[in-house]
Amino acid sequence: MRETRLDLDDFVMPLFVGPEPLANADLPGLARHSLETLGAEADELVGLGVKAVILFGIPDEKDEEGSGAWDEDGIAQQALRELQGRDLVLITDVCLCEYTSHGHCGVIGEGDEVDNDATLELLTRTARSHVEAGAHVVAPSDMMDGRVGAIREELPDTPIIAYSAKYASAFYGPFREAAESAPAFGDRRGYQMDPANVREALRECEQDVSEGADVLMIKPALPYLDVIRAARERFDLPLAAYNVSGEYAMVKAAAAKGFLDERQAALESLTAIKRAGADFVISYWTKELASWL
Which of 176, 169, 150 is nearest to 227 (CA)? Predict the structure, then answer.
């Protein structure tokens, strides 16, 4: 009689790759791999039955424009070539924040504000370089207006997962540490969404639909289950949700203190995301989920 079931096919594992491996004892899902260790991790995921990964690159050097994001020998591009030939759907995060010296998701213009339109060309260049290196799907996460349309024009045949409603959330902290992408000044509220708004999220989703997105995404997941439900009821496109690092870290920390059972709490949380209407979920629990199901 169960109405909502978890299937490993519906989960995507994030992978971080940088110049050197970096363990994370408290949050193993956010450990960083090197190019030398990435293949073994991918092989293990395939052996467990994981079907898809989303790749985040952490470069050795950064600059104002984030030029490492589209370098054909950049860290993400090398990682994509390393992962070829495996039975995995390769999704890439398309953003500049990991590559810019200031940590923002776009080019900085006058008054230390992100220049939306100047950023679009760089995001498009990045997406193309990922596809040329072997990405099957690109996922722009920058929240610049018009980026889905710009990428669609450049890559008419490439599936696009749009981070359509990405909120300016407090739950990204562990990710920003793992990806070395915290802003050096200010914050991202100028281009990420106000946590108080849901109708705006639907307008953002509608814009991405009109620009050619194949999948819509809500991020974070658990604090925004109502937004997932509202998007599910409004749109027919596949819907994704990102079960973000802060959500993962809270349960890990509570379990370490003996306050709750991690497996039970994780399964309940992931079931809630699916029950709200997500077709698939990006989660740091994906690898562990493979043994739990």
Answer: 169
Taken in order of first residue, the domains within the chain and their CATH numbers are 8-292 (3.20.20.70)
Token pair of 84 as six digits: 């070829």
Confidence (pLDDT) at 180: 59
pLDDT digits (tens, 9 = 90+) for 43-96: 999 999 999 999 999 998 888 788 889 999 999 999 999 999 999 999 999 998
The residue from 51, 62, 166, 252 that is catalytic is 166
Distance CA 153, CA 96 (A): 20
Tokens of residue 94, six digits:
């398309």
List CB contacts of 157: < 8 A, sequence separation 6 or more: none
Total Cβ atoms within 10 A of residue 177: 14
* Active-site annotation holds for 51: no
Please give the structure tokens belonging to residue 110: 């006058």
Interior/surface letters 102-127, b for 16+ CB within 10 angstroms, e for the rest: bbbbbbbeeeeebebeebbebbbbbb
Is 287 known to be catalytic? no
Rg (C-alpha) for the chain, rounded Å, is 18
Whole-prediction pTM value?
0.94
State residue 183's pLDDT score.
61
Q: What angle do CA 271, 272, 273 make, to 5 degrees?
A: 90
Q: Exactly one of 219, 252, 257, 274 is catalytic; name it.
A: 219
pLDDT, tens digit (0-9, with 9 covering 90-100), for 197-245: 999 999 999 999 999 999 999 999 999 999 999 999 999 999 999 999 9
Tell me whether the omega of the peptide bond preceding residue 220 falls within 30 degrees of 0, making it cis.
yes
Tokens coding 1: 């009689």
pLDDT of residue 188: 61
Amino acid code (one letter) for 192 = Q
